[in-house]
């Protein structure tokens, strides 16, 4: 057994408590994610990237790692409808449910395969073990 297993369980438990108490921000939206993108120097909006991908594919799978309340995925679903399949990954069930949810510790949960886009803002530093989560995310990409 991984020697950090029990310590990891305690960390996850503390994050669940913070989310439940409303201490940690869980609200998000397409507008907010585009703002993060712009702050990182990207010129295109997220929806532009999705539209480009939809020119090559009929159907696009989008995963939000640390989806919070699910607002970002809900905004995308409103814009693209049945052209996209939304997947939310978080410790707790999102208020605005995506098409598919992966609930629990992202390091321990199984991710769907052949995902076209993975977005994650304000989350990777909280998950810990960046090498492991990045590798796991890469394996989920189409």
Describe this structure in words.
GO terms for molecular function: S-adenosylmethionine-dependent methyltransferase activity. Residues 64-139 form the Methyltransferase type domain. It holds the Pfam family Methyltransf_11. The protein is α/β, with parallel strands linked by helices and 142 residues long. It has a single domain (25-140), classed as Vaccinia Virus protein VP39 (Rossmann fold, 3-Layer(aba) Sandwich). Helices cover 44% and strands 14% of the residues. The protein contains six helices and four strands; from the N terminus they run H-H-H-E-H-E-E-E-H-H. The protein has helices at 5-21, 30-39, 46-56, 71-80, 124-127, 130-140, and strands at residues 60-65, 84-90, 100-103, 117-119. A four-stranded parallel beta sheet has the order 3-2-1-4. Helix 4 links the parallel strand 1 (60-65) and strand 2 (84-90). Helix 2 (30-39) packs across helix 4 (71-80). The longest helix is centred in the first third of the chain and has 17 residues, at 5-21. It is globular and about 45 Å long. 22% of the residues are buried. The model has no long low-confidence stretch (mean pLDDT 87).
